[in-house]
Amino acid sequence: MTSLRKMLDAGRPLLGLSVMYPSAGALERIGGDWDWIWIDGQHGEMGYEQTLGLVRASDLIQRPAVVRVPGHEAGPIGKTLDMGAAAVIVPCVDTPEQARAIVDAGKFPPLGKRSYGGRRPIDFHGRNYSDTANTDTLLIAQIESPQAIDNVDAIAATAGVDALFLGPDDLMLRRGFSMTTPKSKETLGKDMDAVAAACRRHNKIGVMVGVGEEMLRLCLATGFQMIVSGSDVGFLAGGSKQASGDARKIIATPAAKPAASAAGLSTSPGPETKSIY
User: pTM score, two decimals?
Assistant: First the structure.
């Protein structure tokens, strides 16, 4: 199991890969390009066994697995940590009372009420893994509404909450923006400043989505330490569209029209290609 805490102690920003498809093989192939792996168990297409497989694949490539759970329930939070995840993200934390409740679910006594007995942590670290688990594994509260922004300082002050993750889509939606509105300093800057400032005041880690140059630079300038900068969805869709478009341009050029042969088939060699596999 790969420690996220040790990587953060080095003091440099960490770039994350968002994973929404349940393909451990794909994660093994591309996950090593990134510093940490965000496994989206809330909106992604994976169940327990598939999430466990993705956590194991993350360990195989020595990248911390950060799993977003579907909600605030104690059972899924504890079960995810029992997989050996380096951190859990809990969505839609709007109040300090909710923050305290997820600490109860995600931290061992005396800080919280997490149940002991995770098979995988015991197998790897022994029965005393709980002695350091409260520090070794991170609990990340996702800030996704105007109410959460209003309460961000109190949420950040909650003992046991290790990081705040500004969720841009839900926050923008709740502020009346269309989901086609670009993420920018104009649409998110004030909220990003509020979350980053709360993290600084209470010595918490700031997490944000920064896909593309403009948003990545804004995240860095604001002070976020963990920044999601790529996704399996984006790479799959973007790579497919690019390859298809390039191929169709070649087909459309006059030089690419097949010459008729006796059998009615082209004998012209195809364009030279380089393998990307």
Answer: 0.91
Band (pLDDT 50/70/90 cuts) for residue 262 is very low
| Residue 179 in domain | yes
At 254 the pLDDT is: 79
Pick from 200, 190, 116: which is nearest to 149 by CA? 190
* CATH number, position 21: 3.20.20.60
Averaged pLDDT of the chain: 93
Instruction: Phi first, then psi: give them for residue 195, nearest 5 degrees.
Output: -70, -45
Residues designated as active site? 43
Domain count, the chain: 1
Q: Is the pLDDT of residue 273 over 50?
A: no
Query: Strand 36-40 relative to strand 65-68: parallel, antiparallel, unpaired?
Result: parallel
Question: Cβ contacts of residue 155 below 8 Å, gap of 6+?
Answer: 93, 95, 96, 99, 141, 143, 148, 161, 164, 198
Residue at 272 is within a domain: no
Supply the Cα-derived Rg of the chain in whole angstroms.
Answer: 22
User: Please, are residues 5 and 138 in contact by the beta-carbon 8 Å criterion?
Assistant: yes
pLDDT at 114: 98
Domain encompassing residue 195? 4-239
> Does 217 reside within a domain?
yes
One-letter amino acid of 152: V
